[in-house]
Design goal:
The structure holds two protein chains of two kinds. By secondary structure, chain A is an alpha/beta fold. Chain A contains 13 helices and 22 strands. Chain A folds into three domains: 73 residues, Elongation Factor Tu (Ef-tu), domain 3 (Beta Barrel); 275 residues, Rossmann fold, CATH 3.40.50.12240; 96 residues, no CATH class. Chain A is elongated and about 85 Å long. Chain B has a four-stranded mixed β-sheet with strand order 2-1-3-4. Chain B is rod-shaped and about 150 Å long. The N and C termini of chain B lie far apart (105 Å). Strand 1 of chain A pairs antiparallel with strand 4 of chain B.
Chain lengths: 463, 199
């Protein structure tokens, strides 16, 4: 007969940590249930174990817990959550418990939130295009199935709007394959959470989405589990159900701050800006769960969103994220201040896998050339603007003035679009050609003659 | 004079006629333009309304799909709660193995405790107090055994306390159910599916 043992001897509580004495046979990373006098059960995880003592991290925080009546049960396994297709359309808290008024799904599948380590050999190279309906992403920084492409934002910038727009509009072009969105929000305010729920509900995509919310007033430690819980469901849907899953994680900076808080409570030696030295490997344990597997139909694509403190791209969070992910989409405050939405910076943004997911049979034959040409021309616009700031616009050559016209049009017509506007890749590329046609054909040195003849719009038609 | 007068009259009449003709043609043009505008506006409103209706219908369909899903889960959950309550009652009232389970649970826990053993039971289960003391004494010698009632235990079973060791051996039915609830829910769901109550 196996009898559940509860431990009652505690030697202390410190922040989110509790110290349990006299424990036997407890494993590292084991899940712990904490009960006090009330009927509430909190969940935690073993962080450290020695012969007689265990350090437990409580996900829901320790506020209100009394050492006197507390009972600790070591469950004997790591945190597992039920996973099922029926979880689509539901809203969960940061630990995967439903908060939409209905009970938890009943399923045979339970999965460890830490995921299964993927054998590098069994990974397949990400290919194929995901259409977000946003020109700046689809045209110039294409998102590929199985890719991890973060959005680097700043305080007050519209990253939440962009995330909701991507969640609402994202689709794959082949209709027969199932596509789903999993949304995990960490440390967001209630109004932001409501905005996401309403946005998905009103656009009708909630039925094939799942939302995991760890609100700003939830204990910060809960945020450490939220992305893992969301990715666990994503892994089930992708690799067991064969679906293409887009996982949006916002805001990863809040996640990292929770990690810093926990590290500080544990008395670990801090690294850059107080973050723990293992921040890189911890972030990698989340981001590396994106991808495709050989012999599996589905894929996991990740779009983590992070806010750069003081718009500092060299801050440890964007810096280390950039090492792991395959490119980045950067939001620019200058564009934001000009009233351009989405303020996606043309030059620092990059999708490293773009080349493998675009072109004939995927998007359109001229896609790569148009993107490269727009990029080159916009880079030249930036240089000419800098020059004009010194010598004055009147001193510029006619061609340079044309470039300035191109720059303004590019920002206002190509980069800028409405929150409700969902552009197909065809529309995006056509707008791109309209912009390119503002300059003489000779300037289109990255595009083959055949495509210029086919798509270039003569001056009369252009005007 | 007559010629001049008639000439003026003719000219005036021609101008009036031309003005009237122009007026008629302008009115006609305006009416045609208005008709086109009205038709276009009507078409635009019709398209917008159709799109809005389609959007609202899709929202309703999605919402009803989600609500159906939630309703089904709630109904299953209520059914599970109901049958669990019945099953628990049945265990305590009519299952001959209940007493053996209770004594075994207490003895098994007590075997892991040195010294004082404190057992909590429901009021109804105190009828087994004497047999439990005998079983605990048989399991280990020189024990201080205390058996008392615990109102927090509702469904039966026992809780054995090891105060010096800081441990509690919880074998209350509530706790066993809590521990096994996922398996029980899954099993009920499997049976419901087998019987065709759930698709």
């Amino acid at each position: 007969m196996s009898i559940e043992v509860e431990y009652t001897k505690l030697s202390g509580i410190s922040g989110p940590l509790i110290f349990v004495e006299g424990v036997k046979g407890v494993g590292y990373g084991e899940i712990v249930e904490i009960r006090d006098g009330s009927s509430e059960i909190r969940i935690g995880q073993t962080l450290e174990v020695d012969e007689q003592r265990a350090v437990v991290q409580v996900f829901e925080g320790t506020r209100g817990l009394s050492m006197k009546d507390m009972r600790i049960t070591f469950v004997g396994k790591s945190l597992e959550i039920p996973v099922d297709r029926d979880m689509l359309g539901r809203v969960f808290d940061g630990l995967g418990r439903p908060i939409d008024g209905a009970p938890q799904v009943i399923t045979d599948s339970m999965m460890n939130v830490n995921g299964l380590p993927i054998n590098p050999w069994s990974r397949e190279y990400p290919r194929d295009f995901i259409q977000t309906g946003i020109s700046a992403i689809d045209g110039m920084n294409t998102l590929i199935r199985g890719q991890k492409l973060p959005i680097f934002s700043g305080s007050g910038m519209p990253h939440n709007l962009i995330a909701a727009q991507i969640a609402r509009q994202a689709r794959i072009l082949s209709a027969e394959e199932e596509f789903t969105v999993i949304f995990a929000a960490m440390g967001v305010k209630f109004d932001v959470a409501r905005f996401f729920i309403d946005s998905l509900e009103e656009s009708g995509v909630l039925t094939h989405s799942a939302i995991f919310l760890s609100l700003a007033d939830a204990p910060s430690i809960e945020r450490l589990i939220t992305p893992r819980v969301a990715l666990t469901l994503a892994e089930h849907l992708a690799f067991n159900e064969g679906m293409h899953v887009l996982v949006i994680l916002t805001d990863m900076t809040n996640y990292c701050e929770s990690l810093r808080e926990l590290s500080s409570s544990r008395g670990e030696v801090p690294s850059r800006k107080g973050y723990p030295g293992y921040l890189y490997s911890d972030l990698a344990s989340i981001h590396e769960r994106a991808g495709r597997l050989k012999d599996h139909k589905g894929s996991i694509t990740q779009v983590p969103i992070l806010t750069m403190p003081s718009d500092d791209i060299s801050h440890p969070v964007p810096d280390l994220t950039g090492y792991i992910t395959e490119g980045q989409i950067v939001l620019e405050r200058e564009l934001f201040n000009k009233g351009i939405y989405p303020p996606i910076a043309g030059l620092p943004s990059l999708s490293r896998l773009m080349k493998d997911g675009i072109g004939e049979e995927r998007t359109r034959k001229d896609h790569a050339e148009v993107a490269a040409q727009l990029f080159a021309m916009y880079a030249k616009v930036k240089r000419i603007r800098a020059l004009a700031a010194i010598v004055g616009e009147e001193e510029l050559s006619e061609l340079d003035k044309d470039y300035l016209t191109f720059g303004t049009s590019f920002e206002k017509q190509f980069l800028s679009q409405g929150y409700e506007e969902n552009r197909s890749i065809e529309q995006t590329l056509n707008i791109g050609w309209k912009m390119l046609s503002l300059l003489p054909k000779d300037e289109l040195y990255r595009i083959c003659t055949e495509d210029i003849q086919r798509y270039y719009i003569p001056e009369t038609e252009c005007s | 004079m007559d010629t001049l007068e008639s000439s003026i009259r003719e000219e005036s009449e021609r101008t009036i006629r031309a003005t009237k003709e122009k007026e008629i043609s302008e009115i006609k043009e305006m009416e045609e333009a208005c008709a086109i505008d009205i038709e276009n506006f009507g078409k635009k409103i019709e398209t917008e309304t159709a799109a809005k209706i389609a959007e609202e219908l899709s929202k309703l369909e999605n919402k009803s799909l989600l609500e159906r899903k939630k309703f089904k889960l709630r109904a299953i959950e209520a059914f599970i709660t109901h049958i669990v309550e019945d099953a628990v009652k049945e265990i305590r009232d009519n299952n001959p193995r209940y007493k053996t389970f209770l004594l075994d649970a207490a003895v098994h826990a007590a075997e892991q405790i040195q010294g004082r053993v404190e057992v909590s039971l429901t009021e109804d289960d105190r009828i087994f107090e004497k047999e439990m003391k005998e079983a605990l004494n048989a399991a280990g010698s020189n024990r201080n055994i205390f058996i008392h009632e615990d109102k927090k235990i509702k469904w039966g079973g026992c809780i054995v306390h090891d105060e010096p060791g800081g441990r509690i051996f919880d074998n209350s039915i509530e706790r066993i159910y809590f521990r096994k609830s996922l398996t029980i829910r899954r099993e009920v769901m499997r049976i419901l599916k087998q019987q065709g109550f759930v698709v």
